[in-house]
Amino acid sequence: MALKSVFDSSVIRGEFDKAGINNRFIPLIWKYVIQNPDCNWEDIPSLPSSAYRLLRAKFKASTSVVHSVFESNDGVTTKLLIKLQNGAFVESVIMRYDSSLGKLNGKPRPGGPRSTLCVSSQVGCKMGCTFCATGTMGFKNNLSSGEIVEQLVHASRLSTIRNIVFMGMGEPLNNYSSLVDAIRVMTASPFQISPRKITVSTVGIIHAINKLHNDVPNLNLAVSLHAPVQDIRCQIMPAARAFPLEKLMNALREYQTKSQQKIFIEYIMLDGVNDEEQHAHQLGKLLEAFQVVVNLIPFNPIGSLSQFITSTNQKVTRFQKILRDIYDIRTTVRKEMGQDISGACGQLVVNLPDKRSISNAAPLTDIEDIRRQ
């Protein structure tokens, strides 16, 4: 039987409980492993003898390894190709930002450089979004909570991670139990990442949205809406047929009532498909009763798989202006990072791009730090 990841919280807590070992030792084990990636279990000081036996018998310090690291020419993006214990691969992306570049109430924000980690939750994806490279892989398998957390462990050795976005490979809410378990680990000792610095993105899995706030409160929820009407959503996102727009908006309304937090709306700009002025007005009317931030995302080409064209800057600007000026909806345009290493939004698919070297490029501001003046 394959050994489990020591970061698989529910498994290690269950095993410790069965063996009568106090769970307070678990964060100490995690901290030691993070700081000493090549350690043996016996190297960890001050554990009960039964804990050493249990760790040797059932757990590995890491069930995954970093196969390759790709540095983008933008100087602020690093993609990790991670090999799992079953031989499959997933990708994670480190994005470096500068918080001070944003605005707060029209004034410069406090803060400085930091890193956001884009995490994968599945190998492949079953949603089949026609603009996303990951969807071309089909669905392979869910990641365990330990495999999700290990992405953070690997990335933390390259950069100090302050924010986490579940926007990598897979639909996070289709791997719900592992997602919740992983987030609970990330927000606890020794990681202690604030829930408000974690964003979960979904195409709109209604039954899971209805549970999310109760299970892991204070997260940021991002919804991949991508169209203001159901017909267009179904055209570009086949899975949307199972999640009618009216029912999705009702679920989001209930989520916002419970959480009292803004919801991020992700909207990929596809030329001639969803980027016309009429679409902006439809989107504005759909969202005007919500507290949202709309993030307009330029379409990233996915090679010969592409059936779409990126919207022009003029169209994006006009779309943004309509949402802002007519509907008073906070709207940002995502600055794409890592296109040259296929690390930008919608480009994550297991392949081996040519390794790139870092060049000196200015850091960017993250969506969470952008404020409309």
UniProtKB/TrEMBL annotation:
This is Radical SAM core domain-containing protein. CDD domains: Radical_SAM (cd01335). PROSITE patterns: RADICAL_SAM. It comes from Solanum tuberosum (Potato). It holds the Pfam family Radical_SAM. It comes from the Eukaryota. Residues 111-340 form the Radical SAM core domain. Its main location: cytoplasm. Its cofactor is [4Fe-4S] cluster.
